[in-house]
Specification:
Layout lengths: L12 H18 L7 H6 L1 H5 L6 H28 L1 H6 L7 H4 L4 H22 L1 H19 L7 H19 L7 H26 L3 H4 L8 H25 L4 E2 L2 E2 L5 H16 L7 H7 L1 H20 L1
Antiparallel strand pairs: 1-2
Length: 313
């Protein structure tokens, strides 16, 4: 009698690799590598502005802090995609994400979402005890956002911005720096500026499907988002000016040279508004940063100005 059922056999190492490697690549994509630039823009300022950039120990701590934040924020993105699985499949752009597209299975994603932050939090405690608490608050807050807070109008935007402020706090805590409250305020308002700009473009692009892709959009409209963007833009400029006035590390020869960087920051804000309102750029801010040359040049010029003022003069 012919055996019509093929006998089971163990997979070869090549076949295992053929299954595991794409899954790992999918997990890495789910962790949003393009958004890792946030940890450079928001974790390093305390180190730079406190004149510790060339302190090997401080630099190593901030680099390690950035790596831990990458792992924790990446695990939050995995959890967020698991929570939004069905909505992402209906989204014109998000449906290509690994989980929504089926490139990564939900059980594997859940395992990664548990193991990665556990390891990162354990490592953070060995670096600095206060860093552990900052990262724990960040993780809990972002997980709460993924399941509950993102459905609460206005609070959804504020929670995302709070994640950026906690990044700045982590960068200061790890090197024991007492930061200016105006730096926290500037960072928080800049984060709000970027978050509202992204939401405004996403809401506009999705049109009638906006509330299905993100239910909280039921409570938003373009007029509200534009008004919020105007208020936050003005507030960001004012608080940054106040920070430069107060910043002692940028005072040289009796003059506060930090004020020279104000036009650079204003241009950067205006450039992003131009991309939103004229070019109809709808990508996330980190993706815009990786593609828009004038914004890249603005950040490079600002970094050079800070370096010259704080470390060379």
């Amino acid at each position: 009698m012919l055996n019509i059922i093929a006998p089971l056999r163990p997979l070869s190492s090549a076949e295992n690799a053929g299954l595991v490697v794409p899954m790992l690549i999918g997990l890495l994509r789910t962790m949003r590598p393009r958004q890792w630039t946030k940890n450079l823009l928001f974790v390093f300022p305390p180190l730079v502005f406190d004149s510790q950039l060339f302190d090997p120990d401080a630099l190593a701590r901030v680099v390690l802090c950035s790596c831990l934040l990458i792992v924790i924020s990446g695990s939050v993105y995995i959890i967020n995609d698991l929570a939004d699985l069905e909505a992402d499949r209906a989204h014109p752009r998000k449906k290509s994400r690994p989980l929504a597209a089926g490139d990564v299975s939900a059980p594997v994603a859940w395992i990664a979402a548990i193991i990665l932050p556990t390891l990162a939090l354990a490592a953070s405690n060995s670096v600095h005890q206060n860093l552990f608490w900052v990262l724990l608050v960040y993780f809990v807050l972002q997980v709460a956002y993924s399941f509950v807070l993102k459905h609460i109008v206005l609070l959804d935007i504020l929670i995302v911005a709070a994640g950026f402020v906690l990044r700045v706090l982590a960068g200061g805590v790890v090197i024991d720096v007492q930061l200016s409250p105006w730096l926290y305020t500037s960072a928080g308002l800049l984060a709000l500026f970027l978050v509202i700009g992204k939401r405004r473009q996403e809401f506009s692009a999705l049109g009638a499907n906006a509330s299905y892709a993100r239910p909280v959009y039921t409570h938003y409209n373009l007029a509200l988002l534009d008004d919020m963007l105007r208020i936050v833009t003005a507030s960001t400029m004012i608080t940054y000016i106040l920070y430069t006035v107060e910043a002692r590390t940028m005072v040289r020869y009796g003059e506060n040279l930090g004020l020279l960087t104000v036009p650079i920051v204003i241009y950067g804000l205006f450039r992003y508004l131009y991309l939103i309102h004229v070019q109809n750029e709808g990508s996330a801010p980190d993706e815009v940063l990786l593609t828009d040359r004038p914004l890249q040049a603005t950040i490079a010029v600002a970094a050079l100005a800070y370096f010259v003022i704080i470390y060379l003069l």
